[in-house]
Design brief:
single chain; 117 residues; 11% strand; 3 strands; alpha+beta
Amino acid sequence: MIFKIFFTWWNRQTLGTFLKTLFFGKFVGKDELGNKYYKSKNDERWVIYSGDIEATKITSEWFLWIHHTIDKIPNEKDSKYIWQKKHQENKTGTKESYKPIKIKKGQDEKKYETWKH
């Protein structure tokens, strides 16, 4: 376990983050993606990602908390609006990335309506 942390830090956390979390971190919560959130006595906040380190894996509620926009620790039981979608990480550069429908040259039909001034 310790060798995996030391030699493959890019998969989870660095050795420094591991020691900081061990000695100074207070666990405050976990999101639906499995990311764990910590804070220190000085209100420094950080995340330990589950799986690969990818900043877009932080949900919007936890993003606000980790950047000191809100102080309330997010809770999964908090009600969400009907229009809110489930959080997804950025899929750019993967097979699951968004690919818009291509418009063939010479096609008369527009896929959008222009604004009128």
